Amino acid sequence: MNYITEKYKASDIDYVDLFEQELCSVLDTTNVLTVSSGTASIITALYSLGVKEGDEIITSPLSPLCTAYPVLHSGGIPVFADVENDSFGLSISSVKERLTSKTKVILEVPMWGYPINADKMRTFAKDNGLYLVFDLAHCLGTKFGSSPLSKYCDIACFSTQKNKIISTGEGGFLATDDKSIFNRAQNFTKMGHLNGIDFGINFKMSAIQADQGLKNLKALGDNLKRRYMNSQRIKSLLDNNHINPFKEMKDSEPSFQRLIIQSYDSSNKLAAYMDKKGIPSDIIQYDAKPLYDFPILKKYKANCPIAEKLIESITTIPVHYQYSEEDLKYIANVLNQY
Asked: How many CB atoms lie within 10 A of CB 86?
C-alpha cells in the first residue's frame, strides 16, 4: 500500500468531475467535457469530428473572430453563408448555395444569447450528411422551444470566460450526446492520456476553475431570471422612435447575455453615443462587422447582404444580473435621449 496516496485519497474532491456532472444535468445531456477556454472547446470539437486541411466549414459572417480562428487552426476553410431575416441563424437557402463535396461541418453561432431555428438546421444537416456544431458561448440558458439549444446539434461549445453567463475566470466546455465524439474529444484534451499512441494536447480545466464554476452554476437560475427581468424593464422604459428591441423568436428563451437594440440609424453611431455615456457596447469593443471585412479573412469574402444589413442596424446593451433599478433607468434614459 502507498501510505501517502491512501492517506489523502479520501479527502480529494474531483471538482472538475462534479462540475461536468452538474452541467450534464443543466443541459439534459449525457456527456460534458470541461476545457481551458471557449476557443479550446471549438478546436476540440473540430478535431473530434475529424476536420482536416481543406475541409469546408459553413458558418456565419456575424460570428466573432474567436469562432473563425479555430476553423483556420484546424486547417479548415471558412465558408460564409447569409443569415435569416429575423435571427442570427444561418439561412438554409444560402447554406445550400455554399454546399460542395468538401463541406463537412455547419457551424452555427447564435449571438448574444438569442435563439435560432435550431430544429430546421438540424434536419438540414442530417439530410445532407453534415456535422452540426453550435458555438454557444453566449447561450448557456438559451432555449429553442422547451429544450436547450445544445440538444439540436452534434456538439455544442460553451465559454466560461469572465463576461459569459457563468464564469470560471477563463474556461469553457463542450456537450454532446454522442459517446464516440465525446471519447475522441476527451482523448484529445488529455494529451492522448499519454499512451504514446494517440495525439493530444493539454486543454484541461483546473480544479480551481471548476470549483468556481460550481459556485456560479448554483446561481444560474437567478442569474437568467434577473437578465430577463432587466431586459424587459429596459424595453418597457424605451420611448424613442429611432430604436427598437430586437425581435425575440416565438416560444423560445434568450439567455440575454446582452439585450439587442436595433437602430434606424447607424449602429456604430448609436454605440459610440452610448459609449460616451458610460454604457459599453460589443459593437464598439469588438469592432463588430462581417468577418470577411477583417484583413485576415478577406480572401473568404462572400455575398451576405442580410448579415451586412443586420450588423449595421444593431447594438448591444448590458443587462447584468446585479444591475439596480437606478442602473436600468439610466440606460433607458440614455437610449431615449438618442
From this structure: 14
